[in-house]
Design goal:
The chain has about 525 residues and is α/β, with parallel strands linked by helices. The chain has 20 helices and 17 strands.
């Protein structure tokens, strides 16, 4: 009588079992993550991308280290979830730090997984999205961890200006974990959840004696309002995912692609007589430039970038005639719209992003000049202001500028004037294109005449009125061709759309060189 045969374990069932073990990980660690009102790494990806589109890679990867007892703890995935997915039907690559494994700290295999999806994103010319929740380098793996970070940093630079790179900060990110996000195009942070700092509060207390909380040191508000490191602030992870999807809707897949156009319901020839009523009768009164933007762009839909930082300049994305554009505008409600250090840096980086990814630039100008004062001069306003000038000069995408009111001095040149090769320059009748405002100009030109007058106050007022009538207008610039048109404000939208259609066809040659030397 023959022995009963022993059937091996079904390899399909073995695969299913391993996939289940790898995907469910440490249940207790997941529970702690939920108690902190944070999603797990895979849950975050699933909430961000199109349902059912995520295909995980390197699910079974595990670290190879045997130091400090790590050989007894080898969780699948090694602290990061990576793979490919779709957002609004478009391909993306994504990685999500898993704080439930080694606190999301980066080791050799962790870095290899991230590098693999970064390489795939660059090779296939699709956006890369990183969901960051990491304690930094895995100390037990030593210099291997540092090498892993450097490999990621190198790939950030190789991908820069080629594919969009987005970073979502959904946990405490310290040390090396903050440098990669800082080199990506846009950083999203969630209030009370995301933190970024080079060294934590405890290290600062020990080394400097300074006592500071997590929020005060590197919270979402700090980086959105004070440092300018972050670009978007969300109150929840779900809101952060919605912001990410909305941003991607304006962006091309890569630098060789065109941004995704949409058929809109907002007529391209729509006029808005209300625009003429937005400019106050007094040049000293403020108005909201965001209202101008909303009235001009498709359906009033303006997605502002860095809305809480350097608020004297406004940047963001919109559509004109269905085509995505980048918008740069002075904000008269804040510091009269004057350019300072922070505004110059904010604007310059955005302009360079738009130029890299084929997004035409729409500029709304109302600028009295650069902010004066010792703090600005000592801080390097000359160098930082030159960054914005350099960025506009360098940009080869269609550049369209509308002067709504003040365009004074060097700031007039910087804000995408005809002289730095803007493709279309228009002005409203309320525009004042001059070296400086009437009062300042009169004080300089007619100083002696005013001092010798019988009634200096009356004489000064008379001269200011005369200067305003003769020079504080757009017509001298228009006579010389520095302005292509002086337009009725109501016609701003159709004028820009017509100019944009033409500008999209232009040839974009560059001088042969390795790269320019922007005044960093």
């Amino acid at each position: 009588m023959s022995e009963p045969s022993v059937h091996p374990v079904d390899p399909i069932n073995r695969l299913r079992q391993r996939r289940y073990e790898a995907g469910h990980g440490n249940a207790e660690a997941f529970r702690r993550q939920h108690e902190r009102a944070k999603l797990t790494a895979r849950e975050r990806i699933q909430r961000l991308v199109d349902p059912g589109s995520f295909q995980e890679l390197d699910l079974f990867a595990r670290h190879r280290s045997r130091m400090f007892g790590l050989d007894a703890r080898r969780p699948y995935g090694d602290g990061v979830v990576t793979g490919m997915a779709r957002i609004d039907g478009r391909q993306v690559m994504v990685f999500s730090h898993d704080a439930a494994a080694f606190g999301g700290s980066l080791g050799e295999v962790f870095a290899e997984k991230v590098c693999k999806v970064m390489d795939l994103a660059l090779a296939n010319r699709v956006p890369i999205i990183g969901i960051n929740d990491s304690g930094g380098a895995r100390i037990q793996e030593g210099v291997v961890s540092l090498a892993g970070y450097a490999e990621i940093f190198w790939r950030n630079v190789e991908s820069s200006g080629v594919i969009p790179q987005l970073s979502l900060i959904l946990g405490p990110c310290t040390g090396g974990a903050v440098y990669s996000p800082a080199m990506t195009d846009f950083v999203f942070m969630v209030h009370g959840v995301g933190y970024m700092f080079i060294t934590g509060p405890e290290v600062i207390r020990v080394t400097t004696g300074e006592r500071v909380t997590f929020d005060e040191l590197g919270g979402a508000e700090v980086h959105n309002m004070r440092s300018g490191v972050a670009h978007f602030l969300a109150q929840s992870e779900q809101e952060c995912f919605a912001q990410t999807r909305r941003l991607l809707s304006f962006l091309p897949q890569n630098a060789d692609d065109t941004p995704p156009a949409r058929e809109g319901t907002d007529p391209p020839d729509r006029i808005d007589p209300g625009l003429a009523r937005l400019i106050p009768s007094s040049a000293k009164e403020a108005y909201d430039m965001k209202e101008v933007i909303r009235r001009v762009v498709d359906d009033g839909d303006f997605f502002e970038v860095q809305p809480f930082y350097a608020m004297n300049i406004v940047i963001g994305f919109a559509r004109l005639g269905g085509r995505p554009v980048g918008v740069v505008a002075n904000q008269p409600k804040v510091m009269a719209g004057a350019l300072d250090i922070d505004a110059s840096i904010k604007g310059a980086r955005f302009v360079r992003f738009c130029d890299a990814f084929n997004l035409p630039l729409i500029v709304f100008e109302d600028v009295p000049g650069f902010l004066p004062g010792t703090q600005q001069e000592y801080g390097g306003i000359i160098r930082h202001g030159a960054k914005l000038l350099y960025a506009f000069c360098e940009a080869t995408v269609p550049k369209l500028t509308v002067i709504t009111r003040k365009a004074y001095g060097g700031a007039y040149c910087v804000m995408c004037s005809k002289h730095i090769r803007a493709d279309y320059n228009a002005a409203w009748p309320t525009a004042e294109v001059a070296v400086m405002g009437p009062e300042g100009a009169v004080n300089i030109i007619f100083r002696r005449e005013i001092e010798s007058a019988d009634d200096p106050v009356a004489k000064r007022a008379e001269l200011v009125a005369d200067y305003t009538e003769r020079f504080a207008n757009p017509y001298i610039a228009a006579e010389r061709g520095y302005l292509d048109e002086v337009i009725d404000p109501a016609m701003t939208r159709p004028a820009l759309i017509r100019a944009l259609r033409l500008g999209l066809e232009k040839n974009r040659p560059r001088q042969p060189r390795r790269h320019g030397n922007i005044p960093l």
